Amino acid sequence: MSKVLVVDDDLDMLSLVRAALEKDGHLIDTEADATAVQPARCQQYDLLLLDVMMPGEDGFSLCRRIRAEVDCPILFLTAKAEDAALVQGFGLGADDYIKKPFSLAELRARVNAHLRREVRQPTHTLSRGGVRFDMQAKAAIAGEHTLPFTRGEYAICEHLALHAGQVFTKEQLYEAVFGFEAEGDPSAVAEHIKNIRAKLKADAISPIETVWGVGYKWRKNSVL
Amino acid sequence: MSKVLVVDDDLDMLSLVRAALEKDGHLIDTEADATAVQPARCQQYDLLLLDVMMPGEDGFSLCRRIRAEVDCPILFLTAKAEDAALVQGFGLGADDYIKKPFSLAELRARVNAHLRREVRQPTHTLSRGGVRFDMQAKAAIAGEHTLPFTRGEYAICEHLALHAGQVFTKEQLYEAVFGFEAEGDPSAVAEHIKNIRAKLKADAISPIETVWGVGYKWRKNSVL
DNA sequence: CGCTTCCTTATAAAATCCTTAAAAATGGCT
DNA sequence: AGCCATTTTTAAGGATTTTATAAGGAAGCG
């Protein structure tokens, strides 16, 4: 979830852009008056989308005014297709230049590409059966939202997913999660499995199979 | 001066692009055969420019193959102007998508914009979650005013923000802030976290999440 | 000395984990 | 098919662990 500020004097354009970007789960603020945009205000956003042609202050001027103090990507929306204007825009520190008329698909793709770059980091992630594990953040993500796993639940879940297809007894799972001293009641693991399944159910996925008389395993060929 | 690799089967195009980018002082390598491009080789470049339509392996396939191991910006050159292809390209982790025919001015402007962004990162200021860190001044700014952090509070806060998304135990945080001998009571860290949160609360932002049983982390805007 | 910062301690609050017990499901048996 | 023994699932409650909060004292610094 990222915060985006859109500056355009055309109110129709604002609502159009807002609707498009909100589909990707972003938080959109809009502003029709460029002169009202101060550097300090921009610092809370992850990306700025500026129209070039506006009465009063235009997008170029606004960019020039705030660039020094704003670190996030700045994208221009423009009807001017001339190279000179485009080069000028990039020269002011812009990160992209989207020519009108643009498709909403392109707008979304470009905005997301810039936001993604901001958070692109060497993360150890694993995707299995519709669930994405961020091993650094110790978080599991399904669809658009983070699953509210507890530490134990996450650990069991990650271990199963990491060794998808392999069957683990309750004792093995307990040991894998809490180290060697597996002094735990097997039913404690069953309890966790139950909770995990309940939380996954909200996203209509159930990758954990029970092997009767043996234990549990993560389904290997995920039918997503 | 940056190193750029251009992959295109069209030799005329290669020399054209090379000439254009060399005007900006970049070092250009070219490659006509996509299958010959290995991830390890790409890691020495600051930017990759890939043609989409190539005999043998196309640009999309190449991107897919190397993206996980290559961290630099990847730009597509393409004649395909359809939205679907464009969205697909961005979906593969591309950073820009330049439609043929493009002007050399636009090409240069876009390439330079991406390269500039890369070097903007190692600057001494960082903006995350509504807080801007001035690492030189050791000051954190939220909204209009400087946060009254103590030295230790600032250090913990900066370390968390710098490694947004990653979970740190109290011991790790203490060590990260005071170096080697982490002979500190974990509850001292908890105390600092409390104070940090209290001071951030005035600006209605709370980017620090507690991962129960593990530690703390700075919330990362996850862009799926 | 007064001030800030940091650490410690103590207590309250919260969340998780485990245990227990009953209900449901499974597989094998006659 | 029907029944039984075993295993799994579900549910609820208390015990345990971890975190949040508050207050007091030691150490550094002007």
Describe the overall structure.
The structure is a homodimer of 224-residue chains. The first copy, chain A, contains eight helices and eleven strands. The first copy, chain A, is an alpha/beta fold. In chain A, helix 6 crosses helix 7 (170-178) and helix 6 packs across helix 8 (186-201). The radius of gyration of chain A is 24 Å and the shape is elongated. The first copy, chain A, has two domains: 3-119, Response regulator (Rossmann fold, 3-Layer(aba) Sandwich), CATH 3.40.50; 125-218, Orthogonal Bundle (Arc Repressor Mutant, subunit A). Chain A has helices spanning 11-22, 39-42, 59-66, 83-91, 104-119, 151-162, 170-178, 186-201; strands at 3-7, 27-31, 47-51, 74-78, 96-99, 125-128, 131-134, 139-142, 145-146, 208-211, 215-218. Chains A and B meet through helix 4 and helix 5 of A and helix 4, helix 5 and strand 6 of B. Chain A binds a DNA duplex (30 and 30 nucleotides) through helix 6 and helix 8.
Summarize the structure.
2 copies of one chain form a homodimer. With 224 residues, chain A is of the alpha/beta class.
